[in-house]
Amino acid sequence: MTDVLIIEPSKELALVIAQALARQERSSAIAHTSQSAIEQADKSTPRLVILELLMPKHNGLEFIHEFRSYPEWLNIPIVIYSQMPKEDLGVTDSILEDMGVAAHLYKSSVTLDELIKNAEKLLE
Amino acid sequence: MSARDTIIKEKRGNSVGENQNFPSNTQLLGALARELKNPLILIARQAELEALNSSDASFASIQNTAEQTLKLIDSYLLLAQSEYGQVKLPLETIGIGSVIYDALEEFRPVAASQRINLISDIHDQTVETNPKGLKTALWCLLNMALESVEEKSTRQIMVSARRQRGNNVTVSVLANLEVSRSEMSLARKLQGNSHLAIALHSKSSGVHLAIADLFANAAGDGLHVARRGSSSGLALRLIKSQQLHLL
């Protein structure tokens, strides 16, 4: 089992997040698209997903929809870490909660430290 | 027919020079701003990670610079989208004191590092405005003031909120910005914007002022020059709320 599945189209940023998690002795897997994320989760079930919404082909919301359609992944928390602000999403907090989104963090203003602290809380 | 031929045909086919297939300059600028955020986020986060592994203070400085630039881009996007109706900034009744307090708190560490004293003079006022837009405008004005305070001056920036005649509350950011009314007026007449004249006195391009001006225009009559004693700066007028302030 992997601690965190990082779904991030930027290869460099995904590595930075993975390195920050490794400092906390957390294992991670990286996927750059929704499709490869599903394949990755199939290989090794993550305990937490960190997700960018803005991705080519299938976006992050489409990923959540598919991910949640598998009963064994229903309770895995998802942290959105995205360039898209929450206000632009067009969905309410209760809808996000129903999707199993534990937090929506805006990349521009949320530091790596805050992201990791959020992840740690959910992994404990 | 090649893609280029199609583009040329479409361009020629439109007498006003606009085509649905071509974004306007503002849309293009917005897309460019969003695109710039990707490398800036990477720089900020990579610098943050490096700072954890190194005692070199320059990584924290790189992180801070990238984050401030991201905030500037977000400020531009918010007010530009609002001007073009893509984002609504609805009016709310707010106590202006807390907005100014939050803005000053954010700048206090950087002001302290530059030995600039940040003070406020707030006569508790409730106004009708959009808090997000006001916060953005204040952030821009404070940023500009911090960049522009001269070494020889008193090294002080004051944010004040005072009720003016009629139903207006004036929010001023005062330092020693050396902006004259004639400069502002001339710049507006010539450029349609005020930021070019200010840019002469600022280390930056004056883009912070242009963004604050966007909000000030949406909220009332634009930015104007303000003076108090030996201090000068810029101010925006807001509408005083007629609602009773609930305690």
Descriptive account of the structure:
The complex is a heterodimer of chains A (124) and B (247). In chain A, helix 2 runs parallel beside helix 3. Helix content of chain A is 43%, strand content 22%. In chain A, helix 3 links the parallel strand 3 and strand 4. Chain A has one domain: Response regulator (Rossmann fold, 3-Layer(aba) Sandwich), CATH 3.40.50. Chain A is globular and about 35 Å long. Chain A is built from six helices and five strands. A five-stranded parallel beta sheet of chain A has the order 2-1-3-4-5. By secondary structure, chain A is α/β, with parallel strands linked by helices. In chain B, helix 2 packs antiparallel against helix 3, helix 3 packs parallel to helix 8 and helix 5 packs antiparallel against helix 8. Chain B has two domains: 81 residues; 149 residues, Histidine kinase-like ATPase, C-terminal domain (Heat Shock Protein 90, 2-Layer Sandwich). Chain B contains eight helices and seven strands; from the N terminus they run H-H-H-E-H-E-E-H-E-E-H-H-H-E-E. The N and C termini of chain B lie far apart (70 Å). With 247 residues, chain B is α+β, with helices and mostly antiparallel strands. In chain B, strands 1, 2, 3, 4, 5, 6 and 7 form a seven-stranded mixed beta sheet that branches. At the A-B interface, helix 1 of A face helix 2 and helix 3 of B.
